[in-house]
Amino acid sequence: MDGQAFVPDLYAIPWFLTMFSHVFPIKKIFHLWDKLLVYDSSLPLFIAVAIMIRLKRQLMTFSFNDCILSFSDMPDIDVDDIVTQSTVLHRDTPPSCSYRVHQPDFADTSLLAIHKEDIDLQARRMERLPIISLSDVCRLNRIKSSTFIGNFTGEEFEIVDDIESLATIERLLIVDCRDEADFKTGTLPGAINLPSKTSFEDPTSEVPISTLRPSLSSIKLISARGSRIIVVAGKDTRDGQAFAERLLSLGYPKLTILHGGFNLLSSLGATLELPDLREDS
């Protein structure tokens, strides 16, 4: 759809301005509005994503004009399915991945969170993958900040044990895409190393795309495909983004990019964990 210049500005603004009464008839929308009152302010984003997922097959075959006509006269969509899918997306998505500058109820104010001054709106418009905060990585992987930040932040991350949070815990794999030499000096707990420069095979006439080179780390990544959130951590956000987009081209879902990368950790005076190199031997 981006290739056809059919951008969200052309169809999504009325969705949010009218809280989807522009999309659904009033007799069907009360169930959706009930959820909007119960959940936080990020739920409308997930409702919009659920609608797009529901229409994906049709839209991928449409021309620009077909898309315009389709959104002018929306096809019949099961609201209950949209509500169910949007709440599942909300549950499984780390909060920082849907962070917005004017979000009133974003509770994470730690130094490892994403803050509004970190967000370049023009850059955000070009992003193809979400950014995850170090704070969320610590929370979801049950890492206490003191294990590698010490007392620098003066903060600890609460270990959340409610059922909804447990749905995402143990589903996060950190991929350190820095060079092996940097990886050996220290990384995040549990991370695997897939260096950007050496982890992909060059395209050939038989295989015209870059594929992952066989290694123990690439096997772990392949095993996690589709079942775990993959956090790509580079030297900085842009470094991680370049690697993650190569994985995206290979069809990997649930990709995120670590906000600030290891440069941010370095600026916080972090003491990183030495990797167990025996696992990669």
TrEMBL record:
Gene3D superfamilies: Rhodanese-like domain, Ypt/Rab-GAP domain of gyp1p, domain 3. Keywords: Membrane, Transmembrane, Transmembrane helix. PROSITE patterns: RHODANESE_3 (PS50206), TBC_RABGAP (PS50086). Residues 1-40 form the Rab-GAP TBC domain. The keyword Transmembrane applies. InterPro entries: Rab-GAP-TBC_dom, Rab-GAP_TBC_sf, Rhodanese-like_dom, Rhodanese-like_dom_sf. Residues 168-274 form the Rhodanese domain. It comes from the Eukaryota. The chain crosses the membrane at residues 6-24, 36-55. Pfam families: RabGAP-TBC, Rhodanese. This is TBC1 domain family member 23.
